[in-house]
Specification:
This protein is α+β, with helices and mostly antiparallel strands and 284 residues long. 23% of the residues lie in helices and 33% in strands.
Length: 284
Amino acid sequence: MALLRFSALFIALLRVLAVFAAESEPLTDADASKEKAQLPDASSLGVKVRTSFPQSEIFGVKLVNGQPTQAILQFSNPDTTPINVAFIGGSLWAPDPKTKGETSMIVRNITSTRYNVQIPAEGEESINYSFATELHPQELRLNLVTVLTTDKGAIYTLNAYNETVSIVEPDASFFDLQLIFLYLLLLVMFAGSCLFIYNTWITTLFPQKRKGGKGGERAKRSSGGSKKVDPSDQVAVVGADGPAVTSGAKAYDESWIPEHHINRPEAKRLKSGGGRPKSRGKPE
């Protein structure tokens, strides 16, 4: 019995969602009215619902992309029999460009949630309903619909909300990790581009300095400035890169040459005699 009851509620929900389903061709107000005419309306029961958004602002309801939007549906049942809230669902609508805004077309269905909450006779009950959106910032019409059931098994629909809302993006924070990573990536790319431009074009505009000096400067750097050269012993030598100064008659500086390369030991020579050396003979 419970399975049959749930199946009937599920079929009723499918019929309600068919009103807001987006197929290959957009669903218009005329199509929705035709489908709703096949479903019993809860106005004969006297049940009333009032929907509020705790996070709404003075300028209207804003649906923030990626963040759950909370709606509070407060039901009042003046009837002497209890009523059950089976499902709550809805959709977002936009003006139809084909009719220049005279009719509306569905943009997106929103989450349908099963509740099975009983509203006592001549009592009230509040239900929290949450949903989320991911759309481009724009203004749309939000339509919320509830499916009600009675103890006798009758199924009714009740329109809970039908007003214009704004789709907005979440506020950007400076401490957002995604933004910080994006800033670092852009900074590294900018620094790499500047370094590439500097090494490719800027450095070619400035001539590089020659490392070698001229004449006495090279000799002074090679000797480390430790040995002083007598000016009287300096001899001017003209080379390919200009005049140079050397010590004495030599065209190079001996201060950096190791001493054992300069003062080489001379080989001893044997004195040659007038004849062959006499061999020792036997004594006569």
